[in-house]
Amino acid sequence: MRAVSWRGMISFKILLALFLITVTAGWVGQWLHHRSNHLNIIDARIKTDMVAIAPRLPGWTTRLSIREGDHVVRGQILAEIDASATEADLAVLAAERAGVEKERAEAVAELELQVAIGDSRVEIARLQLDRSDVGLDQRKLDVTKSAEDLERLERLRDKEAISAQQLSEARYLYRSAGVRLRIAQSELAEHQAAIAHAEAELLAQGVLERRLELIDSRLRELDARLSKLQLDVEDRIIRSPIDGVVARSFVEVGEYAQTGQSMFLIYDPANVWVEANVKETALAKVRKNQTVAIAVDAVPGHEFSGFVKSIGAAATSEFSLLPSPNPSGNFTKTTQRLPLRIEFENADDRLLPGMMVEAEISVD
User: Given 3-state DSSP classes, what are the helix, strand and coil percentages for the chain, each rounded to the nearest 5?
Assistant: First the structure.
């Protein structure tokens, strides 16, 4: 009985050993198959585009409207910088522009008056000139007729057919017609001079028009200066250029912000990806659009899916601030790494920039 029991025990141990060897071999085979079809990267990080918000003009920070971690929308006010001096300059310039605008209104009214008066004077002078011209023709006819009458009466006097009084009256009428002709000629010359004077007064309109052009030029200059000051005031109101989350704030109320100084860092939570550095020896297996299983250390028990978006065009060592040249000739070959960009297919607000992740790329 003891011999049978001993042999049974040996058979059981052998069977158990064979079972364990079979299970282990199956697990090792499965693991080796998985390793051959997957590339595992344990030192990957979540990355994003950080937008640095900086002022265009310096000044004292008078107001902060957000805190770190706040969600903001595009155009939302983040902070305000003191703009009291610029606003005072803006008020002075606005008052100056109002004065110039009043001056322009006066010049326009004066020009309109000059146009109305000048045009009417020219028209009246032309009418008077036409009337004088007609009167001159009439006087010329009177002179011609009186001269003919006088000549005829003088011929009759030789025949003693008229009296001396009739001849005297004819001579008087002839002389009177000559005087009236000279008066008409004088009036014509006077009205011609009146037209020239009225037309000369029209030149004053050109002077007023030039004055208006100068005033308009001043107004355009003032408008440009006003626009610049208004832009300076607006630039002291710091707004968000994107929809996103405030990752970092570098300023407090009362601090002096310099031009170009970073005040905030903002990123879009919908625009996050994984940056993984893969060894160059494994790069031949990696292709774009390969699926990736992503495990985030900060979100245990949940697996995110993704895909390879792009493969870096240069090794990470090429971007090092301290390159390592080899002037001595001693060489140690080091495996280089190239960056991969892995996009999430189901990203959410739990994924924050800088978090460590493990990425498993299916390279089968």
Answer: 55, 20, 25
The candidate with the shortest Cα–Cα distance to 262, out of 244, 248, 243, is 248
Distance CA 342, CA 351 (A): 13
Write 223-226 long-range contacts (CB < 8 A, 24+): 223/97, 225/93, 226/90, 226/93, 226/94, 226/97
- Residue (of 240, 224, 232, 230) closest to 259 by Cα position: 232
Task: Indicate whether this model's pTM tops 0.85.
Answer: no
Identify the pLDDT of residue 61.
93
What domains does the chain contain, in order, with CATH numbers? 38-81+247-362 (2.40.30.170), 85-234 (1.10.287)
Span 241-288, pLDDT tens digits? 999 999 999 999 999 999 989 999 999 998 999 998 888 887 778 888
Helices 164-235 and 84-158, interaxial angle, to 10°?
A: 170
Q: Which two tokens stand for residue 86?
A: 């610029």
Report the C-alpha gap between 247 and 271 in whole angstroms. 14
pLDDT above 60 (res 35): no
Give the separation between CA 262 and CA 58, rounded to whole angstroms. Answer: 12
How many whole angstroms separate alpha carbon 221 and alpha carbon 243?
A: 37
> Angle at CA 312, nearest 5°, toward 310 and 313?
120
Helix, strand, or coil here: 72? strand
Cα separation of 27 and 11, whole Å? 24
DSSP-assigned states of every residue in 215-258: HHHHHHHHHHHHHHHHHHHHHTEEE-SSSEEEEEE---TTPEEP
The reported pLDDT for the residue numbered 51 is: 93
| Sole residue written with tokens 């408008």 | 223
